[in-house]
């Protein structure tokens, strides 16, 4: 079975085509700058060269047409007909309370997804645009929606409710939803498979740390808490997002700066976090370079970033009643050896014994990085959200 996975952002489309029998990635790439000047499609060729095809790509349907054209092309393609693609799986950011698992996409499902737009106005519309485009371009091909929020729908009310009037939850579904669910689900299961231990018996903290980041507390195979909230702003300090902030500060800034809701949303989403504190960059590599040059604000931003992660690990260890496995994933989690070391060396009181020599050798590969006598296993597990989406799509289509 061949499955095409699409991740449609506001101005981009990432894609992967899987052969699910061999678990091989047949093709992958992405369209960037949709609707903007200089839009292009880029992908790796069979010989490893990077190919960039420029063109006027004004909306998502045109972008998906470009992708399908490349998949079919004589020079770069890997299929001879679109009929070789058996199904399409879509990443959908927000499923609200409607969706607690991946679903076969029908007209009724699309309508419910449209109702979730107000919960994720920046993310869900492009996700839906991809679904509309596939329907237009590929007819009745089976489509499946895989939701970032679905994994966290197992959280109990005490974890997902905010201390606001209950009527606001009833009227507007204001609650914690959490994100990165597909990643947390994949890496926590993969870790237990690799260790040969029962997933349903473990207490796991999954740390997905990248430009956006979140931690998830997983007990008995289900998410019981997560650091992101109703939106992806809450929780850890991130590349450009503020993370946890006193709600009273929001109205204070709006009044002092004389700005409205859109401006404050842009402030906490795009101009805060590592970028806002350091004044240097949202990229951890550039932050580290600035620290090496003696930049004190960059050092403060890094210390805040690190501290917030450690604080959540401590909180979630308490919420789980102990800890069996700590996982690092995401671009920073998989590659920043210094960050993993600094976190783990401060958590020795929990029984974590880091194998520092092994840790420094692990970049983007799966490994246990603690010593054999460590009470808690710490692992690096590269995430593969696209494969998880493809796997869910295959399972649903085969039912």
From TrEMBL:
Cofactor names: Mg(2+); Mn(2+)
Binding site for Mg(2+): 7, 385
Record-listed E.C. numbers: 2.7.2.1
Cofactor, free-text remark: Mg(2+). Can also accept Mn(2+).
Binding-site residues, ATP: 14, 208-212, 283-285, 331-335
Reaction(s) catalysed (UniProt annotation): acetate + ATP = acetyl phosphate + ADP
Residues of the active site: 148 (proton donor/acceptor)
Top-rank EC class of the record's enzyme: transferase
Pfam families per UniProt: Acetate_kinase (PF00871)
Residues with site note (Transition state stabilizer): 180, 241
Domain of life: Bacteria
Main subcellular location: cytoplasm
Chain residues that bind substrate: 91
Family, similarity comment: Belongs to the acetokinase family.
UniProt-recorded name of the protein: Acetate kinase
Source taxonomy: Bacteria, Pseudomonadati, Bacteroidota, Bacteroidia, Bacteroidales
């Amino acid at each position: 079975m061949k499955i095409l996975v699409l991740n449609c952002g506001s101005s981009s489309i990432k894609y992967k085509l899987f052969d699910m029998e061999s678990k091989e990635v047949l093709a992958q790439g992405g369209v960037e700058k949709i609707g903007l000047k200089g839009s292009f499609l880029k992908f790796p060729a069979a010989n490893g060269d990077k190919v960039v095809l420029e063109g006027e790509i004004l909306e998502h349907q045109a972008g998906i047409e470009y992708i399908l054209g490349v998949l079919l092309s004589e020079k770069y393609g890997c299929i001879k007909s679109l009929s070789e693609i058996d199904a399409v799986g879509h990443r959908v950011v927000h499923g609200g309370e409607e969706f607690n698992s991946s679903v076969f996409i029908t007209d009724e499902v699309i309508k419910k997804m449209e109702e979730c737009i107000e919960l994720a106005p920046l993310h869900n519309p492009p996700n839906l645009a991809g679904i509309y485009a596939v329907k237009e371009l590929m007819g009745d091909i089976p489509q499946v929606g895989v939701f970032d929020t679905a994994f966290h729908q197992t959280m109990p009310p005490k974890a997902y409710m905010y201390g606001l009037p209950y009527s606001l939850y009833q009227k507007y579904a204001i609650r914690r939803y959490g994100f990165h669910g597909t990643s947390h689900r994949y890496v926590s299961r993969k870790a237990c498979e690799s260790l040969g231990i029962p997933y349903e018996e473990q207490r796991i903290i999954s740390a997905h740390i990248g430009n956006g980041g979140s931690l998830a507390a997983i007990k008995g195979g289900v998410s019981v808490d997560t650091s992101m909230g109703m939106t992806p702003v809450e929780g850890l300090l991130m590349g450009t997002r503020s993370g946890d902030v006193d709600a009273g500060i929001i109205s204070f800034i709006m009044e002092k700066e004389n700005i409205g809701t859109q401006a404050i949303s842009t402030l906490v989403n795009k101009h805060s976090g590592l970028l806002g504190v350091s004044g240097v960059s949202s990229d951890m590599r550039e932050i580290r370079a600035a620290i090496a040059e003696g930049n004190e604000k960059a050092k403060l931003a890094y210390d805040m970033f690190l501290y917030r992660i450690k604080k959540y690990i401590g909180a979630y260890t308490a919420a789980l009643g102990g800890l069996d496995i700590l996982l690092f994933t995401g671009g920073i989690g998989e590659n920043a050896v210094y960050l993993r070391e600094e976190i783990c060396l401060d958590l020795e009181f929990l029984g974590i014994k880091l194998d520092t020599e092994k840790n420094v050798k692990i970049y983007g590969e799966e490994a246990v990085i603690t010593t054999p006598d460590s009470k808690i296993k710490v692992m690096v597990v590269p995430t593969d959200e696209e494969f998880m989406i493809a796997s869910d799509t295959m399972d649903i289509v085969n039912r």
